[in-house]
Design brief:
210 residues, 12% strand, five-stranded parallel sheet, 2 domains, Arc Repressor Mutant, subunit A, 10 helices, Rossmann fold, alpha/beta, 5 strands
Length: 210
């Protein structure tokens, strides 16, 4: 069964381009919308696997729409599409529950890969954005003791996640299989009591675990 995707983008030409690109990659586009006021209802009805959400939308913005979706659905993967790369928009989107963050100038080259990553539990974002998130978190962080008992290898894997590296890159760096990487990450999530990569990276920064 093909992956089901809903698009929320107010630029008509870009929305058409996204629809064409996704269909060319064998995704099923369940709908494309120029506003996100009814995004929560649309997700309830059409049950997409992935939502592509522009931040700067007419009516309610994409960040508010994500909050409404997350109020009842924690499973759907939400990738923010935006021209913004500043701290405020990035952090607001992540705090709202975004699964990943993709700048529009990289869409044609990275969108299929980003979708594959969120479906595997990763959090796609450019390395520049990942560094920005960590820096912002560290500036307001309070040091606490590391009581999570992460192993040295788990800390190394977590450090790579914090840099925005994919599972494949981590596996290649340590000369281990992707399944082994997934096993380490599962252990990290359990020890930190988080559910995804964004939460793990944010917690690591806030509590200075690295």
């Amino acid at each position: 069964m093909p992956t089901r995707i809903a698009i929320f983008e107010d630029n008509d030409r870009l929305r058409e381009t996204l629809t064409y690109l996704l269909k060319m990659n064998d995704y099923e586009v369940v709908g494309d919308y120029g506003r996100c006021d009814e995004a929560a209802t649309i997700v309830r009805v059409y049950k997409p696997d992935v939502v592509l959400m522009d931040i700067d939308m007419p009516g309610i913005n994409g960040i508010e729409a994500v909050k409404k979706i997350r109020a009842f659905n924690q499973q759907v993967q939400i990738i923010m599409l935006t021209v913004f790369d500043d701290n405020r928009h990035v952090l607001d989107a992540i705090c709202a529950g975004a699964s990943g963050y993709l700048l529009k100038k990289y869409i044609s080259d990275h969108l299929p890969e980003a979708i594959a990553q969120v479906l595997q539990g990763e959090a796609p974002m450019s390395r520049g954005i990942a560094r920005m998130v960590i820096q912002s978190m560290q500036e307001s962080a309070r040091p606490v003791n590391d009581t999570y008992h992460l192993t040295p290898r788990e800390k190394e894997v977590l450090a790579h996640l914090s840099k925005g590296n994919s599972y494949k890159l981590i596996a290649a760096h340590f000369y281990i299989s992707i399944d082994t990487v997934r096993s380490h990450i599962k252990n990290i999530y359990e020890k930190l009591k988080v559910h995804n990569q964004v939460e793990a990276v944010s917690k690591a920064a806030k509590e200075r675990l690295l």
